[in-house]
Amino acid sequence: MTPTPRIGVLALQGDVREHLAALDSAGAEAITVRRAAELESVDGIVIPGGESTTMSHLLGVFGLYEPLRARLADGLPAYGSCAGMIMLASNILDTRPDARHLDALDITVRRNAFGRQVESFETDLEIAGVTDEVPMRAVFIRAPWVEKVGDGVEVLAKVPDGPAAGRVVAVRQGQVLATSFHPEVTGDRRVHAYFVDMVRHRRHPAP
Ligand SMILES: NC(=O)CC[C@H](N)C(=O)O
C-alpha cells in the first residue's frame, strides 16, 4: 500500500483552497499551515500564489519565518507557485528592500517580469518529468520568471513562444520545486502529482 503523505499549504495569504483541493485529488492529505506546530507535522509544504511581499510580512507576524527556513534547510520538500516561487528563491529582483524570503532555491527571479501587455496570459507548456505527449495549459498572473539558475538547479520548462519565448518558468533543485504559473487554478493535477511523488520518495526511499 502506498502511504499517504501529509502536505501543508502555507495559509497566510493567497490561493490556499485551490492548492488544498489539487493536493487532495493528487493523493495527499492536505492541511493548512498557520502555526509552527502544524508546520512540524507535515512531510512537505506548498507555498501558494498570492503576493510575495504580503506573505513575507505575514511570515514574520505569525512567527513562521525561522521555523520554515529551518525545516527547508533540513530538506523538507517544498513547492512554490508564482509568489511561492519568489518566496523560495535565493535572490529576488524588483521587490521591496524589506521583503524576506526563504533562500531554499538557488535562483534569481524577477517579480512581475512579464510586463504590462502580458501581465496575465496562458500558454501550453512542456514540463520535463511532468508532461509527456500532452502539454499543460499554464496560467500566468503577474508572474515572475527565473533569470538565473545556480548549479544543481534543473530547468523544467521555458515559455515556448511569444514575446517571452525562452524564459524559464519551472525549476527543481533537489527537494524544491517551483513554477511561475498556477497549476492549482486549472483541472490539470500533473504538477501536484509530481510534487506528491517527490514527497513520497523522500519519506520512503527505494531500498
Ligand atoms: N500570482 C501571483 O502569485 C503573483 C505574484 C506577485 N506578483 C508577487 O510579486 O508576489
Automatic annotation (TrEMBL):
Keywords: Glutamine amidotransferase, Hydrolase, Lyase, Pyridoxal phosphate
Amino acids binding L-glutamine: 50-52, 111, 141-142
Gene3D superfamilies hit by this protein: 3.40.50.880
GO molecular function, one term: pyridoxal 5'-phosphate synthase (glutamine hydrolysing) activity
Active-site residues, record numbering mapped to chain: 82, 182, 184
Chemical reaction(s) catalysed: aldehydo-D-ribose 5-phosphate + D-glyceraldehyde 3-phosphate + L-glutamine = pyridoxal 5'-phosphate + L-glutamate + phosphate + 3 H2O + H(+); L-glutamine + H2O = L-glutamate + NH4(+)
Function: Catalyzes the hydrolysis of glutamine to glutamate and ammonia as part of the biosynthesis of pyridoxal 5'-phosphate. The resulting ammonia molecule is channeled to the active site of PdxS.
Family: Belongs to the glutaminase PdxT/SNO family.
Subunit details: In the presence of PdxS, forms a dodecamer of heterodimers. Only shows activity in the heterodimer.
Protein name: Pyridoxal 5'-phosphate synthase subunit PdxT
Source organism: Gordonia desulfuricans
Gene designation: pdxT
